[in-house]
Design goal:
There is one protein chain. Helix content is 72%, strand content 0%. By secondary structure, the protein is mostly helical. The longest helix is centred in the middle third of the chain and has 23 residues. It starts with a helix and ends with a helix.
Length: 97
């Protein structure tokens, strides 16, 4: 399970970018990496499903194609805890501003 400590350590990698005036780069890169990590966790959870179904769920316009949907379902399935989900939502919202 991904825990808040993992997320906090991950986000700490980007503090130097933010301090150096590269906030946009830090946010976009961190959100892309977080979303990829979350996608892999979800893919692992649904690994018994046929590849075509996994792609249908996670790709394109699938129900889990957005970062927000991935966060919600990962929290619902216990893949991430509430605090981690909230931290991911904060990062997502900063990206979307």
């Amino acid at each position: 399970m991904l825990d808040p400590g993992d997320l906090e350590r991950f986000l700490a990698e980007f503090q130097p970018w933010v301090k150096s005036g590269h906030e946009t780069r830090a946010v976009l890169t961190s959100v892309a990496r977080l979303e990829k990590m979350l996608s892999r966790l979800l893919e692992y959870r649904i690994r018994m499903s046929p590849a075509k179904l996994r792609e249908k769920l996670l790709g394109g316009y699938g129900p889990l194609s957005t970062f927000a949907a991935k966060i919600d379902i990962a929290e619902a399935f216990g893949i991430i805890d509430n605090r981690t989900a909230e931290l991911m939502r904060v990062v997502k919202n900063v990206r979307n501003e």
